[in-house]
Design brief:
This protein has 227 residues and is α/β, with parallel strands linked by helices. It has eight helices and nine strands. The protein has a four-stranded parallel beta sheet with strand order 5-4-6-7, sandwiched between helices. Strands 1-2-3 form a three-stranded antiparallel beta sheet. Strands 8-9 form a two-stranded antiparallel ribbon. It is globular.
Length: 227
C-alpha cells in the first residue's frame, strides 16, 4: 500500500497466463478513502494466506514462511543456479517468503541434508534440479527416526535438470501450462508460493547388491545378454 495526499494506492502483483505462460503483471488501484484500501488489503491478504504445512506441529508459528532451497549447480547443463536466480528467486521475494540456499557439492549430498534437517525450521523443501535430487531428499527422509513426520514435509520440484518428470506431472495435474522441452520454473515457483499439498506415492525396490531403494513415478528394469 502506497499513500499520498488524500490518495492511496494498492499495488497488486499477479502472474496470469498470457500466451500459454505465466507472466508478471503489476496492477495499481487508486482509492480516495484510507479505510477502503485497508479493507481491500486485508481481504486480499486473507485470500492468499497459505495453510500450515502438514509436517509442522500446531505450536510452530512464523510470521513468514521459510523454505530450504537445495540447488544442484551441475544439473541441466549447469543451468540450475541461473534458473533459480532468474525465474524462482524473484517470485519468492515478491511473495515475502524467507529462504535458505544450499548447493550440493557431491553425490547424495541431499540425502545428508534431508537426514539431518530440523523439520521445525522450514515450511517446505525446494529442489532445483532434475528428478534425482528429489529422490535424494526422499531417501534422506526415509532413514530418519521420525520419517513418518519427515515424509509430510512439502517438496517442491523446480525443473532445473535434464529430466523433470515430477514437475511436469504436477503441472499437468494442476492444469498449469508447461512446455515439455522448455523452461517452466516460474510456474513451479508460484506453486511453491501458493501451495496445494498433493500426495506422492513412494515405492521400494529390493536389489541384491544395493539393498532397498526408494522410487517414484517409474522404474526401469532390463536384462543384458551376451551375444
Amino acid at each position: 500500500v502506497v499513500s499520498g495526499i488524500n490518495e492511496w494506492q494498492l499495488i497488486l502483483i499477479t502472474y496470469p497466463i498470457i500466451k500459454k505462460k505465466r507472466r508478471l503483471v503489476r496492477i495499481s488501484l487508486t482509492f480516495n478513502c484510507e479505510d477502503t484500501v485497508k479493507y481491500a488489503n486485508k481481504f486480499i491478504t486473507r485470500k492468499i494466506t497459505v495453510s500450515r504445512a502438514p509436517h509442522l506441529i500446531t505450536n510452530v508459528i512464523r510470521p513468514r514462511r521459510h523454505v530450504l532451497v537445495i540447488i544442484n549447480p551441475f544439473s541441466g547443463q549447469k543451468r540450475g543456479l541461473k534458473l533459480w536466480e532468474e525465474h524462482v528467486e524473484p517470485v519468492l521475494q515478491i511473495a515475502g517468503i524467507n529462504y535458505d540456499i544450499v548447493k550440493t557439492v557431491h553425490r547424495k549430498h541431499a540425502v545428508e541434508i534431508a537426514r539431518n534437517l530440523n523439520l521445525d525450521n522450514y515450511d517446505a523443501v525446494a529442489a532445483v534440479s532434475g528428478d534425482g535430487l528429489i529422490l535424494e531428499v526422499i531417501s534422506g527422509f526415509l532413514i530418519r527416526q521420525d520419517r513418518e513426520r519427515a515424509l509430510k514435509m512439502p517438496l517442491a520440484h523446480i525443473p532445473g535438470g535434464t529430466s523433470n518428470g515430477l514437475a511436469a506431472s504436477i503441472c499437468f495435474q494442476c492444469n498449469e501450462p508447461f512446455p515439455p522441452r522448455g523452461i517452466f520454473c516460474t510456474e513451479m515457483a508460484l506453486m511453491l508460493a501458493r501451495p496445494r499439498y498433493l500426495p506422492l506415492r513412494i515405492s521400494h525396490v529390493q536389489t541384491e547388491h544395493d539393498g532397498s531403494k526408494a522410487m517414484f513415478m517409474s522404474l526401469s528394469w532390463g536384462l543384458f545378454a551376451d551375444i
